[in-house]
Design goal:
Blueprint: H1 44-72, E1 85-89, E2 95-99, E3 111-116, H2 127-144, E4 148-153, H3 157-167, E5 176-178, H4 184-187, E6 203-209, E7 212-218, H5 238-243
Parallel strand pairs: 3-4, 4-5
Antiparallel strand pairs: 1-2, 1-5, 3-6, 6-7
Length: about 260
């Protein structure tokens, strides 16, 4: 899809690569408005600035679509080194052993696995990962209609079960897996080396075609050399997407396990 051209000329042109607004609006150079709605009490200056922001949002939307199309067209990644065995938490409080290959309940759909940071020696899970998983809990039935999905933790089943009960995750059919005793977290870089207490928040996607499992995508922004926080899973984290819509933005907010 070709990029849309900026709607503002010299003196007020939108930087379509960064999505940033110019220092001054330049309303006298405005192109026709992008829609015909007005909000109660707004000024001409507000409407002019909002039109520029809207164009930047349109350009960002187009860029998101381009990146998503590139992602969908990735070639197959490598096959997993082994058919990892997890311990799945069951609604009745028990557990069962389940292999990676058996997580494809929808055989023709991808498998999404999010690694929640909670090491076997930790007293509490990562608060940010918990915030993300709180969101996944409500989304789980909707995701399950199109893809296979589960949250994985290196914590033993008992610790993971206690956390799930405390957060109410299984009330929404969120599939929870303990990778305790397996190499999954280490192999897919959700763990630093062989130390099971050095956990990292990584999201991985796998496919299974003609019985063959292949890796498809990982949240590699976590490992990239970028300025500031990598924001590698921001697109699936409702908290920041909501706060980004406010004048205060994210600020120095950090998720907590309890407020």
């Amino acid at each position: 899809m070709p990029a849309r051209q900026p709607r503002w000329r010299a003196g007020g042109q939108v930087d379509t690569l960064s999505g940033c607004l110019p220092d001054r609006v330049g309303a006298e150079t405005a192109m026709p408005p992008l829609h015909n709605k007005a909000l109660p009490g707004e000024s001409a200056d507000y409407r002019a600035a909002r039109e520029q922001l809207l164009q930047a949002e349109i350009d960002l939307r187009a860029q998101i679509e381009r990146v998503a199309d590139m992602r969908r067209k990735l070639p197959d990644g490598g096959p997993p080194p082994e058919d990892y065995e997890f311990q799945e938490l069951l609604p009745d409080g028990g557990t069962r052993h389940v292999k990676l290959s058996a997580l494809f309940d929808k055989p023709d759909a991808a498998l999404i696995l999010y690694s929640l940071m909670y090491g076997p020696g930790w007293d509490a899970p990562c608060a940010s990962c918990t915030s993300i998983t709180d969101g996944f809990s409500g989304l789980a039935p909707h995701v399950a209609a199109r893809a296979n999905f589960a949250v994985v933790s290196q914590a033993p089943p008992g610790k993971l079960k206690a956390l799930a009960v405390d957060r109410g995750w299984q009330d929404h059919d969120l599939r929870l897996l303990s990778a305790h005793g397996s190499n999954y977290q280490r192999d897919y870089h959700a763990q630093s080396g062989d130390d099971a207490d050095k956990q990292l928040p990584v999201l991985n996607v796998f496919t299974k075609r003609n019985g063959e499992i292949r890796h498809f995508w990982a949240s590699e922004l976590l490992w990239a050399d970028v300025e500031g926080h990598p924001r590698h899973v921001d697109l699936v984290w409702p908290l920041w997407n909501l706060l980004d819509l406010t004048p205060e933005g994210r600020g120095d907010a950090e998720p907590k396990l309890n407020y």
